[in-house]
Amino acid sequence: MKIHDIPSPELRRSHDDLHNQLCSQIESSIKDIEKHVPGTALPDSFSTDLRRSLSSLNSLSPFPNSVKLHIWKLSYRLWNACVDLSNAAGVKTSAHKRDEEHAKLRQVSADLLFLGSDVSGIPSPAFKSASFFYKTGLIWHDLRKFELASYCFEKASDLLSKVDITNFSEYEEKKLLLDVNIARSRAAWEVSDRNLAIALLSRSRNVLFAVAENYKALANQYLMFGKAMLSKNEVSGVNEALRLMNDALELCERGLTVVKRTEDTLALKELISKTLRFLAASHLQRDEFESVLKCVKVLRDGEKDQHPSLSVLAMKAWLGLGKFEEAEKELRGVVLDKGIPESVWVSAVESYFQVVGAAGAAAVKGVFLGLLGRCHVSADAAIRVVNKVVGDPAGGGEEARLRAKVVSDLVSDDRILTLLSGEDASKERTAMHALLWNCAAEHFRSKDLQTSADIFEKSMLYVPSDIESRNLRAKGFRVLCLCYMGLSQLDRAQEYINEAEKLEPNLASTFLKFKIYLQKNEHDGAITQVQALPSCLDFTAEFLSLAAHEAIACRCLPVAVASLSLILNFYSTGKQMPTTEVVVFRTLVTILSQDPQNDSDILKQMKRAHSRLHDTSAENFFGKGEIGRRERNWFSVNAWNSGVKTGQANQYAICAEFFRLASEFYGASIDEEKEGNHVMVCKSLIMTVSAIISDEKQRTNTLSENEVKEAISLLDRAGKMLKSSSTEYEAIIEPNFLFVYTWCAFDLHSRLDDTGSQQLLLIKRFANSKCCNPKHLLQIGIDASQGPSSNHEIAIFALSTCLTTLLAVPSPDYVSVALILRKLVSLRSIHGVDTNDDATMETYKQAYRIMVGLKEGEYPVEEAKWLAMTAWNRAAVPVRMGHMDEAKRWMSMGLELAKKVPGMQTYRSCMEDFIAGFEKKLSGA
User: Fold this and answer.
1) Are 152 and 183 spatial neighbours (Cβ–Cβ below 8 Å)?
2) Do 516 and 490 meet the contact criterion of CB atoms below 8 Å apart?
3) Is residue 692 within 8 Å of residue 707, measured between CB atoms?
4) How far apart are CA 338 and CA 31, in angstroms?
5) What is the DSSP track for 848-871?
6) Among 317, 394, 405, CA closest to 364
7) Closest CA to 215 of 270, 269, 268
8) Which of 131, 545, 661, 809 is the most exposed place for a label (fewest CB within 10 A)?
């Protein structure tokens, strides 16, 4: 050493002072830790202060041996303080934060010991320091601080690597080197450094020291890594797991060659069995079923007490090979082992059923029921088995039905019912009910109603009969009602819905009862249920609409009518309705129209619609715009058509009501229309009055004065519409309607005393119109000529005008001409006997002039004979009264007419002889 390298005494004293000062600080902190109350949180100031002092101390190295010894003692003192705190509070029960502070103090203790690890006078200081780092690393590993754990394990490995392992004699020393390697390997595995982890395990083979416990520890770690790889269920992972487990198996077999104690032999053999089981599981994942069976055979040959998993492994292997009988034998063997864990046999059942499917449902049922009889089965296990048997019932099919049949038998077994009947099994009972309910619902959606009903019934076994569950029971009864309705077992469906209504009387129950009566075609019962719907607390108008649709679909029209009629009662309340009021009325009328006997009901609903129209407005009732016009036209046309139909059936009273409603509907204005269809209003009013008069004649019951005036007011409305037209009034309606209007007005005005001039003016106006028809005039003339309200003036005018019109055409209708002449003769005879008879004579002369030039028979012969005979006979009265000239005039007219009538030769001869004798007599006188 050079002179300048030798520190001066002052510098040595300064270093010694610093060493002592820092050691004192560390010791003070340790004292505080020793005084700390166990179970309370460790403040982070302990580790912070210690770490600061340690860092300062580290900067002053190297240390004299005395300082190293002092540091060694402080390290052990701190370590022991941590141990005391852990033992008092319990590391396992402490909070994570407290565990981390504890690990930091342990870390300081290990680092402190490392500073003095080469102290002289203490045996194996490096080994003891490595032990501190190893134990601290385990704590960090438990806290999942893998980087800190790896640091500690690496420190321990470095310290042990400097030690000659051939000098290890104690078991703990031999064991520590292996433990550090395994712990370091585990830490590397946790951070996904698998290559390092496996390399460290391989390195550990060199430090087994022919100790059986070491072989077991290393083999067990290989197995743990293999299990971890196997759990990932990856192809590459399974291959790696197989290699690791084979290494574990090899180590166990090597360990048996050096074992000395019996308990070590048993431990290694147990590990071999465990490894073989996992090897079998690995082969199973690789679909190497033969290898699985070989592993199982080795295990069964070597073990007295068979592990429960062997049957499961063998069963799965046989399933993979497609040998279902052997698989079923293995599954049934599970039942014989009373000590088998529940999770194992449940898994076996699930695996078997997953492969075999519905074909194995019966076997699963037998196994499960056998287990119920031999060992304790939890409610959870029962639910898992039932869930596996249920599978996925969506879509239906034969397999789903077979599964459902087995489920039905299982859940209805008394043993399972007893298992889930206790108060502590309420959660499982609810789960079972939900499982069965969902299964039944899927079958219901698949239209397999019989299976659905069966499972729904079984689900009811898991619903308690208490008050809290009454709504759930009612729901079950309702859905069962639906199932049996779909199966057309209506009586049974009715039983279920009656039970549901007892438990929970609501809208759904009432509606289902309605549907049952509907399908039974019991209309009265269905109508009763419809009428009961509004009384339900949860009533909504949509159900009445739905009831109407259901009734229409079943062709139960009375029920549909009752439903729609009931809906209409709610529109005046202002409630929100599923459809517009006019649509309901339209639907109702359409349904009623399908039966020809419903005219009165149609009229009733039409009047009801008109009343609502009057109460609201055309736009509110029919709607706005084009939609409103279409709705208005529909009601107008249907009222008109109903009026035509009932009129043709001679139901004139109803006919009049329909036409009056038609006039109201046609007259409704939509949007900016100034008026409705006034032409159709006019026609409807005319037809209304016509029907009133026709009904009077049919009933032979004369209209009262007020009724006559009301009818006249309706005609006056029509007349105003005719006169308000910018063109000739006859141009806006057809001739027939104009005639009906004229005829009705004449008829009604004839009943009033002071309307004669109005009648004549009305007829003349009609006669002068372009659309006047001779037949219409003839009808008016005939009607005016007879009855209590006859008017000969109008009758003569109408008949005369009609005659003129008929004769003006190229080919007159001589039948009608003859009829008019007869009527004119009769009228003029009745009203002209006591006055001048020239008008009557002129009528006969007109008839004669008409017949002149006609072909034989062209003029009706009988009418011609009548004219000839009546003209001749008219001479009788003048003869008796001595008016000889007048008598001769009538005789001559009769003779002239007779000459134009074929077949009256004999009469003519007699007439001529009589006239000749009459003239002689006159001349002789």
Assistant:
1) no
2) yes
3) yes
4) 59
5) HHHHTTPPTTTS-HHHHHHHHHHH
6) 405
7) 268
8) 809
Number of continuous H segments (helices) and E segments (strands) in the chain: 44, 0
Question: Residue 814, class by beta-carbon neighbours within 10 Å (0-12 exposed, 13-18 middle, 19+ buried)?
Answer: buried
Query: Left (φ > 0), alpha (ψ -120 to 50) or beta: where does 170 sit?
Result: beta
Q: Where are the alpha helices (DSSP H) in 593-651?
A: 599-615, 618-622, 625-648
CA-closest candidate to residue 432, choices 396, 460, 402, 470: 460
For residues 843-853, average pLDDT = 89
pLDDT > 90 in the chain, percent: 15
Closest CA to 343 of 314, 304, 371: 371
Identify residue 219 by its one-letter amino acid code: A
Output the CA angle 201-203-205, nearest 5 degrees. Answer: 80
- Would the CA dihedral through 783, 784, 789, 792 be positive or negative? negative
Q: What SS3 state is found at 624?
A: coil
Using CA atoms in the order 859, 865, 871, 873, what is the torsion angle rounded to 10 degrees?
Answer: -170
How many whole angstroms separate alpha carbon 856 and alpha carbon 99?
Answer: 142
pLDDT at 22 over 80: no
DSSP secondary structure, 414-477, as one string: HHHHHHT-SGGGHHHHHHHHHHHHHHHHHHHHTT-HHHHHHHHHHHGGGS--SGGGHHHHHHHH
Structure tokens at 847: 């008839």
pLDDT tens per residue, range 41-55: 788 777 787 888 877
For residue 517, pLDDT beyond 80: yes
Residues contacting residue 107 through CB under 8 Å, at least 6 positions apart? 47, 136, 140, 148, 152
Q: Is the dihedral of CA 147, 153, 154, 156 positive or negative?
A: positive
Q: What Rg, from alpha-carbon coordinates, does the chain have? A: 60
Q: Among 515, 523, 577, 576, which residue's Cα sits nearest to residue 545? A: 577
Q: What are the pLDDT digits (tens) for 861-883?
A: 898 899 889 989 888 888 888 88
pLDDT (tens digit, 9 = 90+) per residue, 212-265? 788 888 888 888 888 888 877 666 677 788 888 888 888 888 888 888 788 878
pLDDT at 502 over 70: yes
**Phi and psi based region of residue 791 (left: phi greater than 0; alpha: psi -120 to 50; beta: remaining):** beta
Report DSSP state, residue 144. T
Of residues 3, 5, 87, the one with CA closest to residue 38: 87
CA–CA separation, 741 vs 718, rounded Å?
8
Number of Cβ within 10 Å of residue 302's Cβ equals 11
Q: Which of 370, 324, 364 is nearest to 348 (CA)?
A: 364
CA distances (Å), origin 332, targets 370, 371, 389, 686, 831: 9, 9, 17, 95, 124
Residue 222: Cβ-neighbour burial (10 angstroms; 0-12, 13-18, 19+) = buried
504 or 730: which leads in pLDDT: 504
What string of H, E and C letters represents the secondary structure of 897-919? Answer: HHHCCCCCHHHHHHHHHHHHHHH
Could you list the beta-strand ranges (E) of 142-279. none
Q: Round to whole Å and give the CA distance between 438 and 733.
A: 70
Q: 661 falls in which pLDDT band (50, 70, 90)?
A: very high
First to last CA, the chain: 212
Res 353: pLDDT: 65
Tell me the C-alpha distance between 84 and 78, whole Å: 10
Asked if 383 and 428 count as a contact pair (C-beta separation under 8 A), the reply is: yes
Q: How far apart are CA 461 and CA 691, in angstroms?
A: 70
For every residue of 293-323, DSSP letters joined together read HHHHHHHHHH-SS--THHHHHHHHHHHHTT-
**Would you say how long the chain is, in residues?**
925
Alpha-carbon distance of 693 to 700, in angstroms, equals 10
pTM across the whole model: 0.61
Report which DSSP code applies to 787: S
